[in-house]
Design goal:
The chain is mostly helical. It is built from 15 helices and no strands.
Length: 274
């Protein structure tokens, strides 16, 4: 029986390693290709490893384009969107979880319904509203439609519902107002959830490509995902430059994940969903 369990464990580990390896191959190919020249990438005889390693792709990205400005634009918009999403999600989740008001169930169902609607369906009306407000070709156009997340509200509500009602009542009896409840009691208790939601939101905002492509046309207003289009030539694609840009775009997301890794995993395992 012990030997059988060892074989089963070994098979499971081998399957996980194989799956992880298959998932990592595209990323490994991207990193290695960033050190190749363009002909080495498009050549049929080009191997997996770079034949003549070169930093030319990275030099082109960093010197021939305002990549630093694009990084700053992405960082500013991603941080603002993440902070606003966490604030609105926690606040709305608390109201839906712990307060009673007329039409509560209907309002929450409407929030859930927006989760089922693809962004492409509301893209045109969102663009028209943005144009009416005169926000086209501005970073505000990136931030404004993403200040609230229906998924974030749903997740916060499910998590806050698990907080004992007696704990909140005891705090109210001690003179705590709603703001103090949020800051001193609820926020620390839902911190793992907020960390997980924050990482998801930051990654989505950082990697957002379609909406910035539509509302931004000034080079200095671009975000980093648009760099992949900027470095595409009219007739020839410089794959080594595109791969170098992709590597540089990925690094900040990896850093954020590594910093908040423990909170992220804890938040995923403590969502409070029933």
């Amino acid at each position: 029986m012990h030997r059988k369990n060892v074989w089963i464990d070994s098979a499971v580990i081998a399957a996980l390693v194989l799956t992880a390896g298959m998932m990592l191959i595209p990323y490994l190919w991207m990193v290695l290709s960033s050190f190749k020249d363009n002909m080495d990438i498009i050549s049929d005889s080009g191997g997996f490893l770079p034949q003549h390693p070169s930093l030319e792709g990275y030099r082109t990205v960093l010197e021939d384009a305002p990549f630093g400005t694009w990084l700053l634009n992405s960082a500013v918009t991603s941080v603002i969107i993440t902070a606003a999403t966490l604030f609105t999600s926690a606040l709305a989740g608390y109201v839906f979880a712990k307060h009673q008001f007329r039409g509560k169930r209907i309002w929450f169902l409407l929030v859930l319904a927006t989760m089922m609607i693809p962004f492409q369906v509301i893209m045109i009306p969102t663009y028209l509203i943005t144009a009416k407000l005169g926000l086209i070709n501005s970073l505000t156009a990136i931030v404004l439609p993403n200040l609230v997340s229906s998924y974030g509200v749903f997740l916060a509500k499910q998590f806050i519902e698990e907080i004992p009602h007696d704990l909140l009542e005891a705090a109210r009896l001690d003179g705590a107002g709603e703001l103090k409840l949020m800051v001193r009691i609820i926020a620390p208790l839902i911190l793992p959830m907020l960390s997980a939601l924050g990482i998801f939101t930051f990654m989505n905002a950082w990697n957002n490509y379609l909406w910035p492509l539509i509302v931004l046309n000034d080079i200095d207003r671009m975000t980093v995902p648009l760099a992949l289009v900027y470095f595409n030539g009219t007739h020839v694609v410089n794959y080594n430059v595109v791969m170098s840009a992709a590597v540089l775009i990925t690094i900040p997301v990896i850093i954020v994940f590594l910093i908040f890794q423990k909170q992220f995993i804890k938040g995923l395992t403590m969502t409070g969903m029933k």
